[in-house]
Design a protein that fits this description.
9-stranded mixed β-sheet; globular; about 35% helix; 11 helices; binds iron/sulfur cluster; two-stranded parallel sheet; about 375 residues; alpha/beta; binds S-adenosyl-L-homocysteine; 2 domains; DNA polymerase, domain 1; TIM Barrel
């Protein structure tokens, strides 16, 4: 709700139909609205020219087509773009656009903060604040399209071609809203990004993996990061609840993983923690034991103020990558994009919080000094 008006973004086609019925309109209006909102990116009812004049005037009395507000927009030297967004319901999140030559990926957040406390992740140090609504999730994608001038959908040469649910938060702990948003994203009459171009990254919420396959069919990435339970318990604490055996069995059962569509295993490279040849060997043993068709993504650790880890050396990362390649697994070392604008997980949000905190501390120091001394 925005100013007591309902945001139409995030409503399913059926719900849009119900909203139109409440206005005394035929159900096919929902299809027209859907087209304007998700194919054309229109936010202004008065420009929806195939609706009657009367309806165009009445819609804004009850509804809005809302977008998140941009608090900060940054462009990196390598053209990575990052938006720090204020949500209509309150809370700040970030959305990152990583351009590639002929295609780009938008990295979308699913929660404000995260409850899972992975020890190498900056978002994990923040408290969980709330789950994003479907409108909040869709809003990130629609705003990126606005900013890059990529409406209407379906035109060739768009940069925003791929979506990764890899921003702030754990998408599978907010499944209902993530699923609702992705259903709308995949709808061929709207934003129309196919399930083959969507990847959802999870730290391993095993019970929700089957529903992800059945209801969404999107690609799956697992934040694996360790080859033993002992180490994974420390790096990705949800492992204590769903240990490697359960996680890897769920991966083996993920449809599509058996044939063309491999599961991506994300592996953050931490110096002297998980980057030895023995770790790589254990990973291969596990993939074979559970018959998981995997590819690896080796992510250089992105340090943040106060982090207790360091990034592995180039040598260690290459040795690791080479071994996995020899064993038949693709294992590129990801280049860190947008480092200069802190485009790694959770960094910008915290930077802005730090600035706020600093301002608050300074204010308090001035107050303590008293009005005559400062
Ligand atoms: N919660 C989900 C998705 C968001 S995190 C998940 O954990 O999968 C997206 C990816 O960034 C994850 O693989 C995460 O482990 C990784 N990541 C988090 N902090 C990082 C850091 N400081 N350096 C490198 N990768 C990091
Ligand atoms: Fe949450 Fe993912 Fe960060 Fe872990 S890595 S704290 S699950 S956002």
């Amino acid at each position: 709700m925005t100013d007591n008006k309902q945001n139409l973004i995030g409503l399913s086609r059926d719900e849009l139909g119900e909203a139109m019925a409440m206005m005394g309109e035929p159900v096919f209006r929902a299809r027209q609205l859907f087209h304007w909102m998700y194919h054309r990116g229109e936010t202004d009812f008065s420009k929806m020219t195939d609706l009657s004049k009367d309806l165009r005037a009445r819609l804004p009395e009850h509804f809005v087509v809302a977008r998140p507000t941009i608090n900060q927009a940054l462009v990196s030297e390598d053209s990575t773009r990052k938006w720090l967004l204020e949500l209509p319901g309150g809370g700040e999140i970030e959305t990152v656009m990583i351009p590639e030559k002929d295609r780009g990926a938008l990295c979308v957040s699913s929660q404000v903060g995260c409850s899972l406390n992975c020890s190498f992740c900056h978002t994990g140090t923040m408290d969980w604040v709330r789950n994003l609504s479907a409108a909040d999730i869709l809003g990130q994608i629609m705003l990126a399209r606005d900013e890059m001038n990529e409406w209407p959908s379906g035109v060739d040469g768009r940069k925003l071609k791929n979506l990764v649910m890899m921003g702030m938060g754990e998408p599978l702990l907010n499944f209902e809203n993530v699923a609702r948003a992705l259903q709308i994203v995949m709808d061929s009459e709207g934003i129309s990004i196919s399930k083959r171009r969507i990847t959802l990254s999870t730290s391993g919420v095993v019970p929700m993996m089957k529903r992800t396959a059945d209801e969404l069919g999107v690609g799956l990435a697992i934040s694996l990061h360790a080859a033993t339970n002992e180490l994974r318990d420390v790096l990705v604490p949800i492992n204590k609840k769903y240990p490697l055996e359960q996680l890897l069995q769920a991966c083996a059962d993920y449809p599509g993983a058996r044939n063309a569509r491999r599961i991506t295993m994300e592996y953050v490279m931490l110096k002297d923690v998980n980057d030895s040849l023995a770790d790589a060997k254990e990973l291969v043993r596990l993939m074979k034991k559970y018959k998981v068709h995997a590819k690896f993504n080796l992510i250089p650790f992105n340090p943040w103020p106060g982090s207790i880890y360091e990034c592995s050396s180039g040598n260690a990362m290459h040795r690791f990558s080479d071994y996995l390649n020899e064993q038949g697994y693709s294992a590129p070392i990801r280049t860190s994009r947008g480092r200069d604008i802190m485009a790694a997980c959770g960094q910008l949000k915290s930077a802005s919080e730090n600035t706020k905190l600093k301002a608050l501390k300074e204010k308090r120091a001035r107050q303590e000094k008293g009005p005559n001394e400062g």
